[in-house]
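Support reply, case 0932

Customer input (verbatim):
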Amino acid sequence: MKLILLATLVASLALPTRAHAHGSLKAAKPAAGAHIAEAPTSIHLLFSETPSLSLTSIRLLGPDGAEVPLGPLTRAADSESAVTTAIVGMLTSGVYTVRWQMAGDDGHPTRGSYRFTLALAPAMSGATMPAAQSHQNPISQPDEPGFGVESPAYVAIRWLQYGALLVIIGAIAFALVVLGFAQRLLTPPVVAAARERAAGIAVSAAVLLALTALLRLFAQSYALHGESLAPDLALLSTLLRVTQWGHAWILEAVATVIALVALANARRGREVAWKLAALAGGAIALSMALSGHAAASPTLRLLAISADTLHIVGAGGWLGSLLLVIAAGVPVALRGEDTQRWRVVASLVNAFSPTALVFASLTAVTGVFAAWLHLETIPALWQTRYGQVLLLKLAVLSVTAAIGLYNWQRVKPVLDAGPLGSRRLQRSSAAELGVGVIVLLLTAILVATPAGMDM
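Our regenerated output:
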């Protein structure tokens, strides 16, 4: 199964694709590096994706470094992807710096700056024209903020979030699907005990998800607004009320609370609570897609968001439920009678295998679609940072293919033979989960890495 997954991913990379990524500056008026003799009355910026006005800003710095007053920022009449602002302050001859920040529906901010030179006629200005200074290309040399969505701290927050969410989805898949298949082979007390243990693990994961959601909100506010670690409540309110990223965060927060309540009730043996938890888990997965690359896709946006949501569900149903088999199912099985415990372990693994195949296939198909959507050309795989991280992720996934082959050849045949099969299962599962942790880290990096066309 893992070999099929790897082959599918490799084959998908042969497809040339169209791309999208974080917004970049495509054109500006006044242009970068321009030398003009007439004072401009406005600044007009065209981006590669539609900017959210509430997350977009323009500043104009004069020759002395002082900020030139500008009018309100509005969307330009000629394009949904362009913004404009009137220059209110007086201009003199000199070199001016335009600093901009924008973010699309995915909430990922991009910053940049460029210079233009104003050389007014002597009658219009008594200022001495300074020597021309070097200027930045606004597309290839964006300003890098001190803290942003690609910062290690923000990556760590997303890493923890994805890990917690995969545990929650894995617990739900384990309780409803894996144990659903296995319960005809297991006694009701074993099934109930395994579900109770899975719910307890998922409750801890839901608490972690709630804490990291708060950290993510503060990190996003700081990445967008900077200056102070203490978030500005007015800016925070604007972020949540008028941006898609904010709406996605609210969905995540509400769904996390519902999941926490549902899982706590599932821990008390209420089976209907698992279905409520499943709905909440799906909503959390959707919220992640709504604040990722898919949300800023210029084409096929609805399909991209749906695919990202299913990708998260598939990964949780695969790696997350594997964790629950080892952390919840096997310990319950080993508490049973010596004559029965190995049969119970074998029954759990045999029930997990077909569900893992389905979830891993779902992960593979949606991953192929994401690669097709986010990569521009085949050379983008090794010429862009996004492609390089994707290749590294693929290489790490290939390790799981080797582990899957080992499980098929060496572990599964001896599962019901005694302690040897259990020890092999625990070792191979620990290795596979370790690889999964690395894959999650690479995913957390990919989410904030601009794709091919913007690198």
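We compared this against your earlier run and they match. Two observations from our side: The chain has a mean pLDDT of 79. The chain is about 60% helix and 10% strand. Please reopen the case if you see a mismatch on your end.
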